[in-house]
Amino acid sequence: MEYQQLGMSNQDAEWLVSRRFTIDDIARMFNVSPIFLQEYSNSTYSNFSEASRAFLTITMRPWLANFEQQIKAALLMTLPKRGIRYQVEFDTADLLRANPKERFQSYETAIKSDVMTTPGSANPV
């Protein structure tokens, strides 16, 4: 019977740790969560949904605001028409939409507090 090593050597373990640090370093450099660089060692579904929201608010919002300002300056401000105002805005509502469980909980709360009514429960006129 021969001895075969089941684990990895110290050198291999150190290499894996350095790869993890590289991913974290790149994530910090571009202001994104490591989840978006396919690093899932510390992630859960709730972490991912929160990271998605944080990605939009922290990383993408400044870029989108910059694009909106540039589009306004380049296209809409060059030939302003009297009485007509145009607005440029990226629609990020779909990215911020909650998961189904959170949505249904908020619907339930809104219905119980009479902020929202169920379809068909309104008084007919």
Automatic annotation (TrEMBL):
- An example Pfam family from this entry, by short name, is Phage_portal
Q: Which InterPro entries match?
A: Phage/GTA_portal
Highest rank taxon of the organism: Bacteria
What is the name of the protein in this document? Putative head portal protein
Species name: Xenorhabdus bovienii (strain SS-2004) (Xenorhabdus nematophila subsp. bovienii)
